[in-house]
Design brief:
single chain, 185 residues, mainly beta, Methylamine Dehydrogenase, Chain H, 4-stranded antiparallel β-sheet, 17 strands
Length: 185
C-alpha cells in the first residue's frame, strides 16, 4: 500500500509491476498514515484534512469507495490504530477543541461512532501506539509529551515530557514491557 503527498493511495502486489487498486486519486489531502488491520482484509488511510477512510481490501473494482469515511479531527489526523478486531479504531491528530486522541466504533452509525475523546496534547497529537496485552494507548504530541491511556476505563493514566520537540515515532517492544520514542530533534 502506498500513499503520497498528492493524496493518492495505491495497492500493489509483490510480483506485479502495475497497481492492483487505486483507493484514492491524486488531488485529495496528503496522506499522513495508513495501515492494514491485523486480518489483512481492511486498510485505513488518515489524511491532512482530519479524515480517516477505511476500505475492504478484496475489492474487484479499480476505484473502490471507502465503506467508512469520518472527519476525526478538525485540522489533521496524524495517526491511527485498529483495536481488537478492527471494529474499534483510535485516532490521533489536532482538533480545535483539544480532543486530540479519540476512540471510534466502526459498527454504529457515523453520528454515534465517537465513543470517547481525550482532551490532551496542546497543539495536537502526532503519533499513536496500541498495546493490546495491556489495553493501553500511547500517544506522542507536538510539544514532546507522552500520554498513556487505559482504553477500558477511558482515562489518562500518565502524562510526561519525553522530548523538547515533537514526538515523531513510537515503537512497542513485543512483550510490552517497554516502549521507545523518537523526536524531531
Amino acid at each position: 500500500l502506498t500513499g503520497a503527498q498528492d493524496g493518492s493511495v495505491r495497492m500493489f502486489e509483490w510480483t506485479r509491476p502495475q497497481q492492483l487498486v487505486c483507493f484514492r486519486q491524486a488531488g485529495n489531502a496528503r496522506v499522513t498514515r495508513m495501515y492494514f488491520n491485523s486480518q489483512g482484509n481492511k486498510c485505513g488511510v488518515a489524511d491532512g484534512e482530519g479524515f480517516l477512510s477505511i476500505w475492504q481490501v478484496n475489492q474487484t473494482t479499480s476505484n473502490p469507495k471507502p465503506y467508512l469515511s469520518w472527519q476525526c479531527h478538525s485540522k489533521t489526523t496524524s495517526d491511527f490504530a485498529f483495536i481488537t478486531s478492527s471494529s474499534l479504531v483510535a485516532t490521533s491528530g489536532q482538533s480545535n477543541d483539544n480532543r486530540n486522541v479519540c476512540l471510534w466504533d466502526t459498527l454504529v452509525s457515523s453520528g454515534n461512532s465517537l465513543i470517547h475523546a481525550f482532551t490532551c496534547h496542546d497543539h495536537g497529537a502526532t503519533v499513536l501506539q496500541y498495546a493490546p496485552k495491556h489495553q493501553l494507548l500511547i500517544s506522542g504530541g507536538r510539544k514532546g509529551y507522552i500520554c498513556i491511556f487505559d482504553i477500558r476505563q477511558r482515562q489518562i493514566l500518565f502524562t510526561f515530557q519525553a522530548h523538547e520537540s515533537a514526538v515523531k515515532a513510537l515503537a512497542l517492544e513485543p512483550s510490552e514491557d517497554y516502549f521507545v520514542t523518537g523526536s524531531a530533534e
